[in-house]
Amino acid sequence: MSDAVTLTNTPIEGYPYDREALRAELGTLDQVPGVPKRDPILTVDRIERRFGGMTAVNVTHLEVPRGAITALIGPNGAGKTTFFNLITGFDQPSNAQKMIGGGDAKWSFNGKDLRRTGASQAARAGMVRTFQLTKALSRMTVLENMLIGANNQPGENLFVGLIPPLWKARERENILRAKELLARFKLDAKIDDMAGDLSGGQKKLLEMARALMSNPAMIMLDEPMAGVNPALTQSLLDHIQALRDEGTTVLFVEHDMHMVRHISDWVVVMAQGEIIAEGLPHTVMTSEAVVDAYLGAHHDKDLGDDDTINTGFMRAIATEIADEIEETR
Amino acid sequence: MDFWFELLQSILQVAIAPTTAAFVLAAIGLNIHFGFTGLMNMGQAGFMLVGAYGFGVSVSYFGLGFWAAIGVSIAAAVVFAIILGIPTLKLRGDYLAIVTIAAAEVLRMVVKLAVLQDITGGPSGIPGQKYRPVFTELSPLPEGKTTILGLTYANTGVDDWWTRIVAWGLVALFLLITWLLIRSPWGRVLKGIREDEDAVRSLGKSSYAYKLQALILGGIMGAFGGIVMALPAAMQPDSMGRPMTFNLWMIVLLGGAATIFGPLLGSILFFVVRLVLTSLAGEFIPSSLLNTQQTEQLAWVLIGLSLILLVVFRPQGILGNKKELSFNV
Amino acid sequence: MTRTTAISVSTKRPLGVALLLGLLLALFLGIFPSGPAHAAECTPDASTGCVQGVIKTSSGDPAVGIKLTIKGGGEDQTVETDSEGRWVFAVTKAGDYTVSVEKSSLPDGQFFKSAESREVQVQLNNQASALFPLTDDESAAQGGSSATGGESAGESTKSANSFSWPRFWQQFVSGLRMGLLISLASLGLSLIFGTTGLSNFAQGEMVTLGGLLAALFMGITGNLWVAGLLAVVVSAGFGWAQDKVLWKPLRKKRLSLMQLMIVSIGLSITMQYLFQFFWGSGVIRIDKSTPATWTFFGVTLTVQSYIAMGISLLAIIAVGLGLMYTRFGRATRAISDNPALAQASGIDVDRVINIVWIIGGGLAGLAGVFLGLVFNGLNWFTGGQLLLMFFAAVTLGGLGTAFGAFVGSMLIGMMVELTNIWLPGDLKYATALLLLILILLVRPQGIFGRKERIG
What we know:
The structure holds 3 protein chains of 3 kinds.
Chain A: H1 2-5, H2 19-27, E1 40-51, E2 54-65, E3 69-73, H3 80-87, E4 106-109, E5 112-113, H4 119-124, E6 127-129, H5 142-149, H6 158-161, H7 168-184, H8 200-212, E7 218-222, H9 230-245, E8 249-253, H10 257-263, E9 266-271, E10 274-279, H11 281-286, H12 288-296, H13 311-328
Parallel strand pairs in A: 3-8, 3-9, 6-7, 7-8
Antiparallel strand pairs in A: 1-2, 1-4, 4-5, 9-10
Chain B: H1 2-15, H2 18-36, H3 44-60, H4 66-88, H5 93-112, H6 117-120, H7 133-136, E1 145-148, E2 151-154, H8 161-182, H9 185-195, H10 197-202, H11 207-230, H12 242-255, H13 262-284, H14 292-313
Antiparallel strand pairs in B: 1-2
Helix pairs in contact in B: 1-13, 2-8, 2-11, 2-12, 2-13, 3-4, 3-5, 3-11, 4-11, 9-11, 12-13, 12-14, 13-14
Chain C: H1 3-6, H2 16-28, E1 49-54, E2 67-72, E3 75-80, E4 86-91, E5 95-101, E6 111-112, E7 117-122, E8 127-129, E9 134-135, H3 155-158, H4 165-196, H5 203-221, H6 224-252, H7 257-279, E10 293-296, E11 299-302, H8 303-325, H9 327-337, H10 339-344, H11 349-374, H12 382-397, H13 402-422, H14 428-442
Helix pairs in contact in C: 2-6, 4-8, 4-9, 4-11, 4-12, 4-13, 5-6, 5-7, 5-11, 5-12, 6-11, 8-9, 8-11, 9-11, 12-13, 12-14, 13-14
């Protein structure tokens, strides 16, 4: 395990951002869970989250390759969103390191140890996420939503904020960048609308554009396709691929298998909180373990069949609902 | 006709009274807490008490000068905000509400302690003449009385023009600060927190730090409200209890939370409407049917009911914009 | 904010607010003449001087209903101390006055420590005060003949500052009593919070209502048991009506929890002043006779206190068993756990919440009746004063868990009565509130709460 923990702080020269080269390189790796990557941007070790008696997440080792689009898939209740919450600081692992004692959970991003950092510091480190249920700031305009995404605005300091000349120049730059991004996501016509008035798909786009305001090293998308008008799907896919081509690492959770196969360079499969498979999209998605995981889940079962409605199943639904409630807070 | 003329004059008198200004100051602070940041501060009266006693005790017991006493007052409010904020700002909103209301009550009980009679004056408080001189001696106004719009007060004295000028000057200053801040990127982050704390955290802002800053800033404004309230009268612990906080909430909600001028309009209306109601009742309803005490009680019943009706039917208040009301729906 | 989403959606306007006022008025109107006007307020001005003070028993509790007279300068007034033990005279002439306390109005077992009358000098536009410290030790009573002034204000509570085991034991049992009474009210608060998410600031007034109604029915029927029972039934009915006409429509309208909380504050203010309007601001006694006392293992309490403790305990056990073993109890817990899931699995959420309000109202009413009996009278603010104790108890035990509310209440009750041994009586509530703040600092979910609830 020791070699897996070794980190490189600087990106390796000439890292293959070319998609084919990158895929080729990933193809040479062992297709097993926890396989070490040449230049991981995110490394996770022994992270665990229990709710009551149930283990929602139990990941022993995972490395996310830099510069690639990595998909995190798995049946409902597999713990994907909880895993996202854990690494972005929105939830604390049950085995978190405490002030005194505690567990050995450990993960680092871009060489920065994130064990003790909160959500905002994780974001400042360059790991910006979006949410399954969009969190547009409804009663603020689209432009305000975008500007809040920038993290180089000195006027966000209370005292600097009192003196406009100190922050107006940066504000103008940020507005230009916001307009650029909005134009790219075809939201420029809505710039002065309240974000709450946008359609579900537009909110997803806005959230993504907002996350990009700070030029993150990695963007984490939680079900970017959920609730999006199918007409928008293709452009959303193009946006995600364009991000990767510009050097942003993408990690996303998705149910839509077609999308996963279409755009991802690497796929990680979770089931019952654990990572059960990892590999190139076409290899992983046909592997036996993955098919079993999906078939074993309640998704494809006949709900009328009494045998399937057991305690475990009820619990799974309960956690899903709990997750959603957590999300809407 | 005399009655109407007198009523008009007393309306004017109430509208410019230092007490009204004191309520405006505290309400501006509460508006920063609740209107702009969404903090349920149920202990604004506690901040007023901290401010008033910080000033009064510094002068009457420790013999400090005016500016030093003001400094003590501000420092006390900052400390109070930090003590309240640290344990609660990471928790759900109603915890802050319970803790602030409890802390304000504890403070009031402590100040009333008979053991502290020499310092705080116990239940009867500190009489005005013990701390007022340090304030009146700063007055640049000449001796004598001045009559403006039929209202005659001493230039400098117990209930004078000097207090009114300073009180409303402070109101203007605080309104200006609020206006500047709410238009600054700092204010934008506050609004973002009110809308969705998690979204703001996911964009790299420490919502905790911002909430604490807002709590401190609004608390300092509350402290000034307390000082201004005590200047023309005496310092009484029971006048800064729970009813005071509830009145301030009423004022903020009436004027319109999350608006700049809401607290100003709310305060003036709050006092004038009560005055008009009690005067009319006193004039036209025979006291055998409704004596002064009962009129006062009914006025309070009316306040309670208006609070309910306001929150249910017009949560944005008079000046507010329905699109930007400060309740999380 | 999500709790309400689970409950079905409609946009009916809550006319209930107006209806509720109607109901409140219907409840009170005409039944009661306004109470005796108590001179609880006196503001010194150019033509008025005030003489005031607070009388406390040796244990630091306010001594309620003590008669005082003021004589001199043509004045001859009589007042009674209010629920906080406060008394105040307003005089219109400066000069020397004599304030004296009527000895027969002292609580049993309380004696004057120094004097029963004092000379005071009153100036207009100013306040004067006089102290009448009490003691429970007859031998120490009236050591000095009517001394004037000079005594420090801390004196009245000093006798409470010495520790002895019998005293500890007495306070311990008083703590149990306080804890049980707080439990009654905080159980309701906790159930309501658990099922609806509402922090009900009007819970204190529901308690007051119970006590005042008991006094009202006592006046009509003359039988304490009947009066108490009626008061509890009407209180439960008030809980039911409150939910039907106010809270349920507001839930349907999907008001946020913050809005609901402010509505409950508005309701609390409204009820407090309606109480004052109809009952006056003075002390109302449910049982006007002098209560008998029992001494058990060195603890002296009124007979009514023992009965109140017994019935409270039974009521709490009944609610606890009901929550654990009945269908309704399981439904309540399911809703507290996860309203969406409960709704989905066929539980009639609105009905369960309505029953919770009935139980909450009834328990609060019962608490009010007992408070009025145990402390020999109550006023419009009795419940309001204890509201923060209820919140402290519920938060301490863990928001939304019934068992936690019980344990929290017992702890708070103990805290209030036991700290009284060492600290001045004025601080007895303050320590409980400080405990609350400290608990939130180290374990915000309370003793039995789950961490997920507070996120």
